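Collaborator request, handled under Task 6.
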Amino acid sequence: MAWKTSPETEMPALREVYLDYGAATPMDPLVIEAMLPYLSERFENPSAPYARARAARAALEEARAQLAHLIGAKPGNVVLTAGATEANNLALSAVDGPILTDAIEHESVLACAEAHGCIAVGVGPDGLVDPAAVRANLTPQVELVSIELANGEIGTIQPIRQIAGIVADERARRLRAGERTPLLLHTDASQAATSMAINVSSLKCDLLTLSAAKVYGPKQVGLLWVADGVALRPLVRGGGQESGLRSGTENVAGAIAFARALRLADERRKTDSKRLAALRDGLQRALLEAFPWMLVSGPKSPAKRLSGLLSMSFPGLEARRLVLLLERLGISVGTGSACAASRMRVSHVLRAIGLSDEEAAGSLRITLGHPTTEEDLTYAVWALSDAVRRECARVGIDPRTGEHA
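Structure tokens returned to the collaborator:
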């Protein structure tokens, strides 16, 4: 892929290019097709006693069974939720004592951990959690460890299996010592599901979160897988749905859509991951050729970074201004996690990996998705290059060196 980025490159025709799939994915047409009947003629409440309602219940349970199968689980261990944030809250509410997590976790995990007494281990410049740091901070009082499988802002894939081994060792030590403090391992796999196969047995976790919104399904639909023997506490009380863990009329259409979306992600994963990694690497090379001073965040090894994600920084420039310039050119990109960007503040993830405020303020996150084409990125390279050069000219920075004139 040889994309031109020189200032003399002729402006191409304007086009709309969405490059923020880490924030939201469009619903796949096949997913919409699967859920539409349950939004119209098959609308019944699955808790009602008559035949049509029982059919809705059967469809809901079939969707649950499909979701369970796709992650190597049993249907009875899958709790359907209104998204990953609720699933994370439900998972972390299972314990009373301290929670060990890391400094770049999703805010839904960090907020819950802080309410319990949080031990947050640092990460390296690549965002990786060192399993040795987990072992060193795993005090006898810790009741739950929560490390996400992959970070949605810089793409770091965490060594969950190694961390699971450390958790198992600590459980065994407590058992030998006669200590009765429980210890659970939770992982939020929401951002990883389109890039990696998700199997609860392989990951050796006790609790796992997934989101339909990250796999071309509907927003506000998610799940929490719960291992046998793990007791949860309901956050929403009332009618006793979801085995008493989440009261409220079940979202049958959402569950069916989620099952279809996760199956499609599973079928497409190998091809999409390879294609998107090649596109991402080509985009990164083209931009570094034009702007050698551009910083790339996350692991250097492609095997340790989500395939379609590029986190980059242009120190001295303001990412918010770049986003606006790109928007005028039809390009939609993020400035980090959508949660942090919506409040216009520097991301805790970028701070945790050691970026200065100036470097973090100039950071953009590009995430590619199933619909992304090479033609999209041909245009995106031109647009990004044009926006960066315009901003460099405005603030007096040499676009080739990144130094102030």
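The cover message to the collaborator said: "The CA atoms of residues 308 and 368 lie 5 Å apart. Confidence is low (pLDDT under 50) at residues 337-342. Please let us know whether this matches your experimental observations."
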